[in-house]
């Protein structure tokens, strides 16, 4: 019985080791239903163990002992009240790290704050006042996270997150602007121009900033066109 449950427990532990929510990607059902729904737990060894349970022997080594209150809990280990109390503090820590130029570390803090709120949001009915209130707290954190990802050149993650925000909040200027920059970075020229146009429609005062981004995109396009001409000339001259 315990071996059958172990693959789901192991997946949660692996999520924790990666700094993720242990329940990420799960819904409220048994392990077998999870496997059938997702076709895989994401790890071949766990898939095989769940299909064909085998006796397991564990060697556990205690590395250190920490007293309660002497360390910052991971979001998954907090109570609901602790999560709500922790979010502003984690957000502040992320902002300070960002100001110090420690962008990946700041992104990790924003991620932890988002995880706290997402965990609470999962317990609410989508669209309910409490769900919406939590979502409105998640949005600025997610935009901060996207800013970090822009600087880390992880553009497709920015595209995904900003699009998810805009699916719910069509007038979010910051989401359009960050998505426009991400589109420009991956050469989605028409999409970038459309997002920057939307920024101007929503907030004309941002025209100088948008104009700068469009000039940068045009300069990169001209440079790319020159490089392509040289590259293709070399190909056809052979």
UniProtKB/TrEMBL annotation:
One of its GO terms (cellular component) is cytoplasm. It is found in: Cytoplasm. Its main location: cytoplasm. The keyword Transit peptide does not apply. Residues 4-62 form the AIP/AIPL N-terminal FKBP-type PPIase domain. Keywords: Cytoplasm, Phosphoprotein, Receptor, Repeat, TPR repeat. One of its GO terms (molecular function) is peptidyl-prolyl cis-trans isomerase activity. SUPFAM superfamilies: TPR-like. TPR repeats lie at residues 173-206. It holds the Pfam family PPIase_AIP. May play a positive role in AHR-mediated (aromatic hydrocarbon receptor) signaling, possibly by influencing its receptivity for ligand and/or its nuclear targeting. Interacts with RET in the pituitary gland; this interaction prevents the formation of the AIP-survivin complex. This is AH receptor-interacting protein. It comes from Tinamus guttatus (White-throated tinamou). The lineage of its organism: Eukaryota, Metazoa, Chordata, Craniata, Vertebrata.
């Amino acid at each position: 019985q315990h071996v059958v449950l172990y693959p789901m427990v192991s997946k949660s532990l692996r999520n924790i080791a990666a700094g993720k929510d242990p329940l990420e990607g799960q819904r409220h059902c048994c392990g077998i239903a999870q496997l059938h729904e997702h076709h895989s737990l994401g790890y071949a060894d766990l898939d095989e163990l769940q299909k064909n349970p085998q006796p397991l022997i564990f060697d556990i080594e205690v590395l250190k002992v920490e007293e309660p209150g002497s360390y910052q809990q991971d979001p998954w280990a907090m109570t609901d009240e602790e999560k709500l109390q922790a979010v502003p503090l984690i957000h502040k820590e992320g902002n300070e790290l960002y100001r110090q130029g420690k962008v990946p570390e700041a992104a990790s803090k924003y991620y932890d704050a988002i995880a706290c709120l997402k965990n609470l949001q999962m317990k609410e009915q989508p669209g309910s006042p409490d769900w919406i209130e939590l979502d409105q707290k998640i949005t600025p954190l997610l935009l901060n996270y996207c800013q970090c990802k822009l600087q880390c050149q992880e553009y497709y993650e920015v595209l995904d997150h900003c699009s998810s925000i805009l699916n719910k909040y069509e007038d979010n200027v910051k989401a359009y602007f960050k998505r426009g920059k991400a589109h420009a970075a991956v050469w989605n020229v028409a999409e970038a121009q459309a997002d920057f146009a939307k920024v101007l429609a929503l907030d004309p005062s941002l025209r100088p900033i948008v104009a700068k981004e469009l000039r940068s995109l045009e300069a990169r396009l001209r440079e790319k066109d020159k490089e392509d001409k040289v590259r293709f000339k070399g190909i056809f001259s052979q």
